[in-house]
Design brief:
heterodimer, A: 505 residues, mainly alpha, B: 139 residues, 2 strands, NADH dehydrogenase (ubiquinone) activity (chain A)
Amino acid sequence: MMDSLLVLIPVVWPLITAALLLPLTGRTRLQQAAALVSGGVLLASAMLLCARTARGAILVLPLGGWSPRVGIVWVADALAAVMLLFVATVSYATLLYAAGSLRGERERRYFYPLHQFLLVGVGGSILTGDIFNLFVFFEVMLLASFALIALGGRARQVRMGVPYVIVNLVGSALFLAAVGAIYGAAGTVNMAELSLRAGGGGLPGVFWGATALVLVVFMVKTALFPVFAWLPDSYPEAPVTVNGLFAGLLTKVGVYTLFRTIPLLGGAAPGGWQPALVAIAATTMLVGVFGALGRSTIRGVLSFHIVSQVGYMIFGLALFTPLALAAGLFHTLHNMLAKTALVFAGGVAERMGGSGKLYAMRGLARTEPWLAAGFFVAAMSLAGMPPLSGFWGKWFLVAGGLAAGAPVATGISLLVGLFTLASMLKIWNAVFWGEPKGQRYPGRGRHRGMLGATLSLAAMSLLTGLLAAPIFSHLERVATQLLDVTPYVAAVRAAERRDDHAEAP
Amino acid sequence: MNSFLLRQVARGVLPVAVLFAVSLLLRGHDAPGGGFVAGLVTAAAVVLHALANVAPSERARRPRVLGSVWLGLLVAAGTGLVAVAAGGPFLTHSHFDVGSGSATIHLSTTLLFDVGVFLVVVGSTITTLAAFAGGENPR
């Protein structure tokens, strides 16, 4: 009972919250208060789920009592739990930030219910045990994100948002077609069953073709090279709160789906995918960081950096050893905190200067030391300075990369770290350093919620760095379980046997 | 559009469409149909009615059907949670046979779930289309 509740809450609780927030439309303060209470419950349940799965337990919930062979299962293992915990954390910080940051009735009116719908999609994508429902929850997430990215409806914002919508719609259509082909070839869409059948061999080429197509779609959602171009132009145009939320959650859900599916199928897949993925990851790091250096607005630089950082995470996955996989996961979690903190700090600066252009306004370190501290910690963390979380993410990755015999890509990751530092210093110099000037609306940026959210995320990045050893050893266990595959498959199949006697109308 | 013919057609279509939607909703558990399709049919009928009988300037005003969305969500989620409260998995449904012999009617809580879906689809479709009808242009 308790177990099934823990698996239910990440999806059903935000759904109920959204339903309850809708009648409060127009009463924004009440909505925010209710969303914070609901977010607290979500956070607490994610912590419980982490504790419950920490020792390797895998919770399987067959919906409606149907056998996983024909029905829908939600599966919570340690990986899903830890992702849900960080999702709940970032989403809570976003709620704190939203009150001060959203501008006017047009941005505020539907933000809180849409935020909950996005969480439904994210939670479902993380928990689902079959690829068809992964498609469904992706759609839930995307529908909410389409509305969020255009929130406020400025003409330029809508224009820049259109490529985001088109790319994702095309991606979804390909995804659905590929899922159909997989079902036709393998006779199931359940991921545990697919892993079993792929391991048994004898699946036709269509199956692997369709699987490759699914992975390409995940790469689009993750913004990997060469399918990242939808991200850097659309994110900076969205409201800051939405930009921060997307930076923390959306591409990371893409990363998660790759971490979920590739170990399940990778062992049996035709060779050659691994070096290809390493090359893609390394190119993504490079392209992302150079793109970021070329941008001239605060959030423009930060958003292009999302692309570069995703490269690190996938680099860890592509090496396919427990050490490297755990390093990729560590980097993912670190990034969810640090990147959102940076976007939030950048958003406050943008508000105070009345523009996001670099050098439009300077000297924030003098006038707003706390905000500057929040930005600095998160920026140095992203650049990989010890003892912050980003340092450990890169440290473990380098160790994993060298151990797995990928010196070139490892070298690239170190080089990209230098350029990351350069681009962070570029923002620091342009916005925070120097004599105060151009701070046209200092009052607009001074909001307890905005500062609190930024500082808490930066502090958590610091804390993750200080607690790197225990966190990493936990993630190593997660990675080992993930690469082992059998516990996951066995847990889902055990649920089949348990429920075969259940009523199936 | 101010058209006598369209108004007459809309007047005839609305009740037929609603009846059709109800039948789709009721048969949905065992045959093609269900809350989603029924909701779309209803929304299409309402939109036709609005096109025929409501002046364009009025159409742009926000229709008050958001209640249908959240009510539907609560109904659908609620039917799933009843089973959880009883100790079963989420979305487990119960089935009953009412009557006997040839007069038996098969009822199940999936119908309630479908009613929830129906309400969500009607509310969200109409809200979305009304937003496109004019009032919500991007600035």
